[in-house]
Amino acid sequence: MSTWSAEVVERRNILRMLLLAVLVVSGGYLAIAWVNAPTNATAAAANQTQLPLEDRTPVVEDRGGATVITTDPPAGSDGLGAIVAFSADGRPLYHNDTYGNYFDVDPDPPGSKTVLYVAGSRYDSCPDRLQAERDSAGDDGCAEVAVERVNLTTGTTERLHTAVTGWDIWHDVDRIDDHRLLVADIARDRVFTLNTTTDEVTWEWRAEEDLDPDSGGQPGDWTHVNDVELLEDGRVMVSLRNQDRVAFLEPGDGLQRDWTLGAEDAYGILYEQHNPDYIPSARGGPAVIVSDSENNRVVEYQRQNETWMRTWEWQDERLQWPRDADRLPGSHTLVTDSKGDRVLELSETGDVVWSVDIATPYEAERLGTGDESTTGRSTAALANGSVDATAAETDRTSKTGLSWLVAFITGPVVNGVLHAAPTWMTIGDLLVAGVFGITAVTGGIAEVYWSGVGRRLLERLR
């Protein structure tokens, strides 16, 4: 072997050692992260719910009331989703994973341990048993929707309504009275009132009546309407995720444009939000507390002088794609951190005073505190009006160019990758996994080339 050949072999061996070292270090890091990942409280609850309640052991910290949580994993009908409840002392109270995805959950009636929830499963190929029930023609897929009530203590379940949509599961259903439900129909871009006794639609608002057809998302997922709330004054508040807006409807008159919170692509206000809660004047409003999902924060806006002012904002290093925030009695806030894989309770000063690790939670309710934020007060009321406010109107300019790209990458791209990744992985883990993958591919290509096979292949291609 010539001196030149020996030097080449030595350089290759050094490169091999460097690549191997990177693989060992990054692989070891990922293995440690996987081993040390927090225990998923949903699985812990599932392991105990067949036992008598008195024999179950706490899996979360105790808190002053039972907590109900729904989960929405990145899947369709494989049973990964669940509704789970923990008693005030932290013991599993209830668990059910019949459906692929679970969304809204509300006490029904408030003060009880019976809840109303909407759940369902998505199918790439619509099963024969559902074909005839589809509410619209479309591709081969469909979604089965179930609206049910369950007594968390006895497990007794009552089916209130079923539907089969062309592609997605309703995300929110709120009770109006004994026979009527208010529905956010994500699949057909509408809000409607349903009589569960007659299955009659008694009122309906279609987004196409008031919104620019060029706004929002693509056909098939235009508005992604994910939340609806009947207000005490008879109006309806609705979350139009893909338009980055919380809108207010006057039944019979349509959209109240001067009340709209947010504007399309005005990400300084909201970026594809979830689950806004309205706080009326009687409790310090008008105010809206909302999960600003793609901005990875929870915020509150106060309406002053016909303008929405931001009066509260919270985020930490772990918060990723929050999708629910409820203001509790007193001053605490219950937050659902969907890709931080936890539900947490914040004090008035923003300290985390309680949390539970749970994979991909969608919504959480603290029983005994009313529905969502119906017993909570606004930040302005809690501070006796002394708050720093930022006018949302100053942020209404839509982001374009580089600012849009940065917001898109740090929001939907990162959160989308995390949603599809294993639940134990964080952003840091994804970066390390990327290094591991690139190193492995680089080493593989180098070995193929050095073996002579790569050179011969290149010569043939020339």
UniProtKB/TrEMBL annotation:
Transmembrane residues, as ranges?
A: 401-418, 430-450
Q: Keywords for this entry?
A: Membrane, Transferase, Transmembrane, Transmembrane helix
Q: Which domain of life is it from?
A: Archaea
Report the GO molecular function annotations: aryl sulfotransferase activity
What InterPro entries does the record point to?
A: 6-blade_b-propeller_TolB-like, Arylsulfotransferase_bact
Instruction: Please report the name of this protein according to its UniProt entry.
Output: Arylsulfotransferase ASST
Q: Which organism is it from?
A: Halopiger aswanensis
